[in-house]
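Sequence, please.
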């Protein structure tokens, strides 16, 4: 139906245009010639618009088909990418049992959001070889500000006499940052290494209200016959200066904390918590500190 209508329109246009040309050739003059000239121009514009519209309709249909094909290819790539991520996760879990580790966390509560820092010092004993690890940084639980390793200023490196490099590859999960660390070469002797990142705003509730909490899961890798890969866990909390000493309490009574101590420069506090025998637990620490008046 549309093709027939288009043909009729084109025929009417052609007849009108031909008649106009014939009239302009000598069959009229004066006002008639002016009117026929305007009719001819209008017919020509109609023809141009008609074919331009026809081109864009066809082009739009072509682009729509290309977009649908691109979306289909993207969906296929996303499925394939997820298969790779799942395979990497299985490799990570299967390699969990082949090392033990002593972990020390240095958790710094800044005077403002920019001062929030976490340093993880690890002493790892391969059983028999470590080639890669996955690390889930501690980030604020109710914010979308931190979604990538770049947001965290994430860095890591080997300490002491260990030779080699650590390649950091982003491997996010559930829209949360995660790092896949590849050791080159794989390590067979005990080594020490460090991770540092800045979860800005992690302790905003503590600064605003004077209390907050931190959760740490000693997750058991798949197939691990032991209760934990950790041989010991130490957490050092560093607080900014305040009129009253801060406090740290593990809710279930796991481990023990030393009394608050003044830092050497007397501009802050330190509380050291230690568990000499981790057992795949979920740790929950409640923290309190003095609330600074707004400036």
């Amino acid at each position: 139906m549309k093709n027939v209508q288009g043909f009729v329109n084109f025929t009417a246009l052609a007849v009108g245009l031909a008649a106009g040309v014939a009239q302009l050739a000598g069959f009229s003059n004066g006002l008639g010639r002016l009117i026929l000239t305007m009719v001819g121009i209008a017919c020509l514009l109609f023809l141009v618009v008609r074919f331009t519209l026809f081109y864009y309709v066809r082009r739009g249909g072509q682009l729509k088909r290309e977009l649908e094909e691109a979306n289909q290819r993207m969906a296929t790539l996303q499925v394939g990418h997820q298969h790779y991520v799942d395979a990497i996760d299985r490799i990570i879990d299967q390699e969990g049992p082949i090392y033990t580790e002593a972990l020390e966390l240095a958790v710094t509560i800044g005077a403002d959001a920019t001062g929030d820092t976490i340093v993880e010092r690890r002493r790892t004993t391969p059983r028999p070889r470590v080639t890669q690890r996955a690390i889930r940084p501690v980030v604020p639980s109710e914010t979308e500000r931190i979604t990538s390793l770049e947001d965290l200023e994430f860095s890591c490196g080997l300490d002491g006499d260990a030779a080699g490099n650590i390649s950091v590859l982003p491997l996010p999960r559930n829209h949360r940052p995660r790092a896949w660390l590849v050791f080159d070469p794989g390590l067979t002797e005990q080594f020490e290494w460090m991770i540092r990142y800045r979860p800005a705003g992690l302790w905003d509730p503590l600064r605003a209200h004077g209390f907050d909490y931190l959760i740490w899961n000693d997750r058991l890798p798949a197939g691990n016959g032991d209760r934990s890969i950790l041989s010991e866990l130490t957490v050092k909390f560093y607080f900014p200066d305040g009129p009253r000493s801060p406090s740290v309490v593990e809710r279930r009574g796991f481990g023990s904390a030393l009394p608050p101590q003044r830092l050497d420069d007397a501009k802050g506090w330190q509380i050291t918590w230690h568990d000499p025998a981790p057992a795949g637990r979920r740790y929950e620490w409640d923290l309190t500190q003095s609330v600074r008046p707004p400036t």
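Helices lie at 2-27, 31-95, 149-152, 204-209.
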